[in-house]
Amino acid sequence: MMAKGGGINRNALSVLMRSRMRASAIAKETSMNPVDSVENAMADVMRWMRASIAVPTDRTESVDSNLRNFSQNYVGLSQAHRRELLLALAKVHDVNRERVRELMQQYLSLDVPQGSGGEGEEAGSGGVEHEGAMAAVYRTERSLRDALKPKYAVLFERLNEHPGGLKVLEMLRADLLSLLVKDNMPSLRALESYLKEKLVSWLSPAALELHQITWDDSASLLEKIVAYEAVHPIRSLLDLKRRLSVGRRCFGYLHPAIPGEPLIFIEVALLKDVARSIQEVLWDDPPTPEHAATCALFYSISSTQPGLSGINLGKFLIKRVIELVRREMPHITVFATLSPIPGYMQWLLSKLASQIKLSKMDPKTMEGLPESVSSSTFKENILLVEEEKRILDATKEDTGDKIAMEVLHDLLTSTRHQWTKSETMLSALQPPLMRLCARYLLKEKKRGKALDAVANFHLQNGAMVERINWMGDNSDKGIHQSGGIMVNYVYRLDKIEENAQSYFSTGHIHASSSLYKYLEITESLSSDR
Amino acid sequence: MMAKGGGINRNALSVLMRSRMRASAIAKETSMNPVDSVENAMADVMRWMRASIAVPTDRTESVDSNLRNFSQNYVGLSQAHRRELLLALAKVHDVNRERVRELMQQYLSLDVPQGSGGEGEEAGSGGVEHEGAMAAVYRTERSLRDALKPKYAVLFERLNEHPGGLKVLEMLRADLLSLLVKDNMPSLRALESYLKEKLVSWLSPAALELHQITWDDSASLLEKIVAYEAVHPIRSLLDLKRRLSVGRRCFGYLHPAIPGEPLIFIEVALLKDVARSIQEVLWDDPPTPEHAATCALFYSISSTQPGLSGINLGKFLIKRVIELVRREMPHITVFATLSPIPGYMQWLLSKLASQIKLSKMDPKTMEGLPESVSSSTFKENILLVEEEKRILDATKEDTGDKIAMEVLHDLLTSTRHQWTKSETMLSALQPPLMRLCARYLLKEKKRGKALDAVANFHLQNGAMVERINWMGDNSDKGIHQSGGIMVNYVYRLDKIEENAQSYFSTGHIHASSSLYKYLEITESLSSDR
To answer: For the Malonyl-CoA decarboxylase N-terminal domain, which residue ranges apply (chains A, B) (predicted)?
Structure first.
């Protein structure tokens, strides 16, 4: 039943489940044009692109009827052809710079009435003459705004207003993003950034519709849920059905111009208590009866469109789901998440690596440096004395003369995460990993916001950090990302606005006392040294 | 049950029907703030506006939570206060012109690589250095695009991304449009034109959802259908129910960000034949059984939002309704309209007035003029000799020495349309009014497109002019607009694309032979003179 070339049979949902599909397979689904027609397709696409940019907006019918061809052909193009096409778009259909310069000269020669556009001006000031002089200013500014649009803007606008066009724009941006990874050309970057700006403006959160996804939805929609579930992969038909049936909810944001394909979706479990591990959420048996549930646990949020990355579609999503669940089930009073900490291990390993380097540096090599950059400036006690001792004890046999930080680094990067298979190791690593995790979540910032992307998402939405859970996710991915630790964020209905506001204005991260206790351990023990 | 101040009780649909409501009543519905709170509301609105423009986009939560207040307060403001507010927006929160000039100087001093942005350039030309020099150009253009945005753009963007915000933007534009009628200030015009541009971009036809409106829809939605039906007013509850039940369909375009309020809606009657008069459509009894219908007749299209006027929301609407009806009822093979001709009388009366003037001019006064502007250049035989004779015969007694064109002009502008009450008059007027109507529809153009707005709408969509119908609408409004004549446009499924395309490219209006016959009458009789 599997079509060649990585494509899948749309209706064979159960077959699909047997060999888990990757998101890329869906994208490639229609890219099976015979090789000999590719050149024609490319020529067609180029022709349509040129025509649709050249034709004035009120005479577009003939161009528009070929839009379907365009998208079909585009999907069939190879990477190399797509690159060629995007480069042509970026370079040939760019800003008309002669026109821009001409208008600028004109604008600069205009007599702009004093004080116009200033902050302090009061409404209604200036007389009829003032207004008269301003008419030319407004007109030229409008022309300038038009002239500063790259010509490819017309193509984007045309695509946006056509059914199916927004999906094509999403594909174009996905391709641009992957091209830019390899080749950061200014023209492609400008194209990508213009397209992103337009997508942000066209994908207003207010136009997104909340849809409860159920087992009664179409296979083609459910297929996408399976393909794009990024947090906790769906392993079987049974697994999918479980996530949509008793004690579970799944909600997606749909955009009317991209039908049948949620742009982002969230999975909810209805439970007695806030779960500590994803295992108990995914394989609870029997499930909590819905009338006995008091907690709605958000255990997975995934976005589905690579071409919409960096565009915040999740705004309002959690708020709206909470409203919906409360209306349907007033006995649910706790709204919490069980979330991954995707950046924790990466941060910790790089921290360990730099500290190992510093601690191994010959003190003499530091001598020539000014005091401000001497090792003491950067050196940090990542591990507490007690923690170091336990780590070395647990691994005594085979560590040689490595320092504890090295041992820890080696353990965390060892293949197949051997450390998780030994009780001794687990109990030696738990205290430092939990403590450092609290520090990572509460203290590590980037431009005043939480360094961890998931933390930042929930804090922005008004949640607080409630609890971190040892071995909350013992899957390979969980161990790899965060040493198996998961975190519960809690949404307190009466605090959402307040929390969001103080996070925005001061960067303050609200957390429970249990989280702050981890930070205190550091301080008290450190000062004993 | 009627609230004071023009407001209506939302749920009292049947009460509403007894005293027909006007669209303006819905808009005023919530404007019943006590007078003493108006000043506070104004202050609040101003404060929120300032704040929401000043706060950076990623720190907006606190501002956004006050959005609901803003819209409630705005609705409560008087015309004068709204004017004050819009003026403040236009003037105080305008383009930062100092910044624009600064960036322009910077841009003009940049070294733009040769040929960049030209039409002829091939993709991939220029080397790494070229790209390097371009980076600064792209960056400055981006900054210029940002700087050329008026500061109020931020307010619009914020409103657009919030549930309910699009509706507020629509209200702002409606107010701007009505202010501009009285006072065409450049600053307000610039504000309106910027807002229109944004609304066009945000209200993509691809994001509109086709919804069949039925008797099961909410009273608050049906209330809007009653209020906004602009073509053939709905007179009673029975009339409304009739338009939604057997043999009838009603479809609306809904935007997800403006829930419960169709932006535009279309009414369809399922009939045996293409109807000739609106009377037989609205009061057919018994209705054609649906299985016996072969024709879907579009008899009314109305848009509901004054603030979206001039924005083409009807694109795709007819096409999508046709697709839907065909799928549901394959036995329907004819898709036609019964449409008003809103501009006919206005055109005819002004034509008559100018010809009367010309024909009364003393030939001597023309002598001094160059031949090219002599009366013969402008003079036209609007009426044929035979037609003139019949008009004068029918009204012999009381016309004195008036010429036939004057008599016709007087009849058409007489109060209460007396001419429609006399059989003699009707039969005297029918031939010239029908003939001139054909000419108006097929020959009168403005910038290459049909002068009549409704004709232009259907021709753009790919319809052809099929038939004109004497006394197709004998209501006061019908007589006043078009001498009671209505027109059938027909959508031939196999010709839609072709017709639309040739209308766009050459301005050719497709019409049936019966329409063209009217034009031939003119020519053959004229040449007899």
So the answer is: 139-202
Q: CB within 8 A of A59, min separation 6: which ones?
A: B504, B505
For A:284-343, CB contacts with B below 8 A are 315-316
Task: Using a CB–CB cutoff of 8 Å, tell me whether A59 touches chain B.
Answer: yes
Contact criterion met (CB below 8 Å) for A255 and A210: no
Domain boundaries, chain B: 33-95+150-202, 97-113+127-147, 207-337, 344-362+379-528
- A207 interaction partners in chain B (CB closer than 8 Å): 207, 255-257
The neighbouring-strand residues paired with A302 are: A265
Among the partner residues B58, B101, B121, nearest to A91 by beta-carbon distance: B121
- Quick check: A186 contacting B, CB < 8 Å? yes
B162 contacts on A by Cβ (under 8 Å): 205-206
Q: With contacts defined as CB-CB under 8 Å, which chain A residues touch B132?
A: 186
Structure tokens at B139: 């960056």
Q: Which CATH architecture has domain B344-362+379-528?
A: 3-Layer(aba) Sandwich (3.40)
Cβ of A141 and B95 within 8 Å? Answer: yes
Task: Please judge whether B122 and A257 are an interchain contact, meaning their C-beta atoms are less than 8 angstroms apart.
Answer: no
- Residue A80 CB coordination number (10 Å): 9
The SS3 assignment for B342 reads coil
Q: Which chain B residue lies closest to A133 (C-alpha atoms)? A: B186
* Partners of residue A248 on adjacent β-strands: A269
Q: Over its length of 529 residues, how does chain B's per-residue pLDDT go in tens digits?
A: 333 333 333 333 444 343 333 444 444 444 444 545 667 777 777 777 777 777 655 555 555 666 777 777 888 888 888 999 899 899 888 999 999 999 999 999 988 776 555 444 444 444 555 777 889 999 999 999 999 999 999 889 888 988 888 999 999 999 999 999 998 899 999 999 999 999 999 998 888 999 999 999 999 899 889 988 878 888 888 888 889 988 999 999 999 888 889 999 999 999 999 999 999 998 777 788 999 999 999 999 998 999 998 888 877 789 889 999 999 999 999 999 999 999 999 999 999 999 999 888 766 665 555 555 555 667 788 899 999 999 999 887 666 788 999 999 999 998 889 899 999 999 999 999 999 999 999 999 998 999 999 999 999 889 999 999 999 999 999 999 999 999 999 999 889 888 988 898 889 999 999 999 999 886 555 444 4
Fold match between B207-337 and B344-362+379-528?
Answer: yes
CATH hierarchy code of domain A344-528: 3.40.630.150
Cβ <8 Å between A145 and B148: yes
Distance from CA of B527 to the nearest CA of A (A): 38
Tell me the DSSP string of B114-181: TTTT-SSPPTT-S-HHHHHHHHHHHHHHHHHHHHTS-THHHHHHHHHTSTTHHHHHHHHHHHHHHHHH
Burial A318-356 (b: 16+ CB within 10 A, else e): bbbbbebbeeebeebebbbbbbbbebbbebbeebbeebb
CATH 1.20.140.90 applies to domain A24-95+150-202: yes
Verify whether residue B376 is a known catalytic residue: no
* DSSP letters for A161-199: TSTTHHHHHHHHHHHHHHHHHH---HHHHHHHHHHHHHH
Q: Would you tell me which CATH number, out of the four given (1.20.140.90, 3.40.50.300, 3.90.180.10, 3.10.450.40), belongs to the domain B33-95+150-202?
A: 1.20.140.90
Q: Which residues of A touch B105 (CB under 8 A)?
A: 108
pTM reported for the whole predicted model? 0.79
CA of A66 vs chain B CAs: smallest distance (Å): 11
Question: ipTM strictly over 0.85?
Answer: no
Q: Are B325 and B268 in contact (CB under 8 A)?
A: yes
Architecture, CATH, for domain B207-337: 3-Layer(aba) Sandwich (3.40)
